[in-house]
Write a structure and sequence with these properties.
By secondary structure, the chain is α/β, with parallel strands linked by helices. The protein folds into 2 domains: 192 residues, 3-Layer(aba) Sandwich (Rossmann fold); 192 residues, no CATH class. The chain has 12 helices and 15 strands. The strands form 4 sheets. It has a 6-stranded parallel β-sheet. The chain has a 5-stranded parallel β-sheet with strand order 7-15-12-8-11, sandwiched between helices. A two-stranded antiparallel sheet has the order 9-10. Helix 2 packs across helix 3. The two termini are 30 Å apart. This is DUF2075 domain-containing protein. Pfam families: SLFN-g3_helicase.
């Protein structure tokens, strides 16, 4: 069997990609939902739930292409002449969608926006929105964030005030920061008064690993420590390392062979948004964190980033062929060999910005710990063909090596 290898992020979510029967049926179902409700007062909301790698983005890409084609070419469609936008609150993923738009006849780069940009333009009377498609809706801000020029209370609420139809994908295990804190319960409570439908995707498309490894990652990121599966599947390369530099060299080799292979890490190492370089050092391993990417090319596709360490802010939502994950100082085993998260060693200050609606100290601690575990879930599920793991904590490192 010959496995396909991709070196472009656009190859993973292009509307030209073939869909499975189930995915095609879902696109048709949501398209019908859209045309049914776009002439109403709104908002009507369709929510697609699914873990990382379950094909949410490719479904949205096909759906939005169909919506815009109808809006711009079919005078008999309820969508004719509607103003529609695709939103994603992640600058690196936005670059991918805009690159795709440049290759499609009925998609324009301006169709793809950050939520804050569109919300502010709507508030200024410069734009309105009929249909909104929102990728990675778990990244929507759920409180004001002046750093990102959002002054409302909740981005989804602000968008619901203007749109007639909203289609969003959501995964609470990819919620990473308090300022975008969501749970399925919170989302469902917000949407309850409105016309809405939901579906849940479960099939894993990204990782060529077996269900045993997927289950192990899900358990690990809920602090349930089990031995690693004896095999991750015939076509998946799972390795643990006791030396971070050896893992780096292995990732470099895979990058030379198949491309799109990178080292990534959890927080817990020096990191400040001051424009300078900050390094992760583990023995002979010494590489800087990812730098802010001012180009239109996604971080992982830049050749020089093989000499950087990616973070959740550059990798979330992306496929890598091979990923090397560093579990930083906050992730460790205690004296009883239980997996714990030491929040005192977490260095991502952006993740834990204060919220006035979370006042119970115990609840807040549990939420923060789960956000860190969510970041591990995001990083471990990046690799299509392989996952390599190194842990800073000696106990955890030994456990993984002998598990």
């Amino acid at each position: 069997m010959t496995l396909s290898v991709s070196n472009a992020a656009t190859d993973k979510i292009s509307p030209l990609l073939p869909l499975t029967t189930e995915q095609a049926q879902l696109v048709e179902r949501v398209f019908t939902f859209t045309t049914t409700h776009v002439t109403g007062n709104g908002p009507a909301i369709f929510t697609i739930y699914g873990d990382a790698g379950t094909g949410k983005s490719v479904v949205l890409a096909h759906l939005f292409a169909a919506i815009q084609t109808a809006a711009r070419t079919d005078a008999t469609s309820p969508l004719a002449d509607t103003e529609n936008y695709f939103l994603v609150n992640h600058p690196e993923i936005l670059k991918v969608y805009r690159e795709i738009a440049g290759q499609q006849p009925h998609l324009f780069k301006k169709d793809f926006q950050r939520p804050t940009t569109l919300i502010n333009q709507i508030n200024q009377g410069k734009k309105h929105a009929d249909v909104l498609v929102i990728d990675e809706a778990h990244l929507l801000l759920s409180q004001a964030d002046h750093y990102n020029n959002f002054y409302g209370d909740n981005q989804l609420t602000a968008l619901m005030a203007t749109a007639k139809v909203i289609i969003l994908v959501f995964d609470e295990t990819q919620v990473l920061r308090l300022k975008s804190f969501w749970t399925e319960h919170r989302l469902e409570h917000l949407l309850a008064p409105f016309a809405h439908e939901t579906t849940r995707l479960t099939h894993q498309f990204r990782m060529q690993a077996n269900d045993a490894l997927i289950s192990w990652i899900n358990d690990f990121t809920h602090q349930q420590l089990r031995p690693l599966p004896a095999s991750a599947g015939q076509h998946y390369d799972l390795r643990t390392f006791t030396d971070a530099e050896q893992m780096r060299q292995a990732i470099v080799q895979r990058n030379q062979a198949v491309g799109l292979s990178r080292i990534v890490s959890t927080s817990g190492y020096p990191s400040t948004l001051d424009g300078g370089k900050h390094y992760i050092t583990e023995g002979k391993f010494h590489l800087p964190w990812d730098q802010y990417n001012y180009t239109s090319t996604p971080w992982a596709e830049l050749p020089q980033t093989i000499d950087e360490v990616g973070s959740i802010y550059t990798c979330q939502g992306f496929d890598l062929n091979y990923v090397g994950v560093i579990l930083g100082p906050p992730v460790k085993l205690d004296d009883h060999h239980r997996l714990i998260i030491d929040l005192n060693q977490y260095t991502d200050v952006e993740a834990f910005k204060r919220r006035t609606d979370l006042t119970d100290p115990h609840e807040l601690t549990l939420i923060k710990q789960q956000l860190v575990l969510n970041s591990i879930n995001v990083l471990m599920k990046r690799g299509v063909q392989g996952l390599y793991i190194y842990a800073h904590d000696p106990r955890l490192r030994d456990y993984l090596a002998n598990a």
